[in-house]
Amino acid sequence: MRFLASAIDRIPGFKRALRIGALGVALAVSTVSGFAGESLTIGTATSPQIEALKVAAREAKEQGLDVKIIEFTDWNTPNAALANKDIDVNYFQHIPFLENAKKQGGYNFVAIAPGTIMKIGLYSKKVKRFKDLKDGATVAIANDPVNGGRGLLLLQRAGLIKLKPGVDFRATTLDITDNPKHLKIIQLEASQLARSLDDVDLAQGYPSFIKLAGTTDPNSALLFDGLENKNYAIQWVVRPESVNDPRIRKFIAIYQHSPAVRTALDKAFGTLYAVAW
Predict the structure, then answer these.
(1) Helix 259-269 and helix 246-257: axis angle, to 10°?
(2) Which residues form a coiled coil (predicted)?
């Protein structure tokens, strides 16, 4: 054995090669179990989106990354939780909503990847056509500055109101220049609009919340907006120091590329969504 050790010592670079080989084995083990024992906390708003997230979480678990998903019942708490470091990333808001939240809440957040784009629509359990709305009918739209504006733009597309030329999703009821049916426009929290359909004549609606509430067929909107505007894609949002967090990047990659996740999304939303990545 001493002869063998002596012979090995005389082979140029052999010990170095052994050290590199050992390092390679260590790296290989690290690649397989690099997330072992680590956890990631994701915040989202309650919606059928949760099922696809759970599918991705199960796949992440199989790859050594433990993921906890926290559901919030409103659209304000997920950003507060992210700012307070109660969660690592949230997934529920599009860019216009995020920019407004940053302005109002003073948040320093970064959107690092897109998710799905969800349709919104105008729903009614009282009429089948817009022209059947009576004078003074009650219409519910979202009460936040961004989604409320999106609802007003949809009402304009339906021919029910006219807005000041050039206004965008930041439109408010003060921008209405013509309201021929004298619609009474009320503003409710977006997540509650689905439950208002029995009490109003027409409501801005989100298919995901309508499906969750079971108040009507999510596909039955009198008018939908399109899926072509990626500005409305839901975003993965983090604090600046987490932009390159490998746990978050790993989970997003799983979510975006998993066939099982796409199957869950198709089952939940059918043709009411599109992917933005």
Answers:
(1) 60
(2) none
pLDDT digits (tens, 9 = 90+) for 51-101: 999 999 999 999 999 999 999 999 999 999 999 999 999 999 999 999 999
Q: Is 219 helix (H, G, I), strand (E, B) or coil?
A: coil
Q: Which domains does the chain have, with CATH numbers?
A: 35-118+230-275 (3.40.190.10), 121-224 (3.40.190.10)
Angle at 147 (CA atoms; ends 146, 150), nearest 5 degrees? 95
- If DSSP codes are grouped into helix, strand and coil, which group holds residue 167? coil
Q: Which residues contact 184 (CB under 8 A, 6 or more apart)?
A: 136, 137, 138, 139
Q: According to the model, what pLDDT value does residue 112 have?
A: 98
Window from 7-21, 33-47, 155-169 with minimum mean pLDDT: 7-21
The helix or strand, by DSSP H or E, that contains position 204, with its residue range, turns out to be strand 202-205
Identity of the amino acid at 124: S
Enter the tokens of residue 238.
């983090």
Give burial (CB, 10 Å; 0-12/13-18/19+) of 29.
Answer: exposed
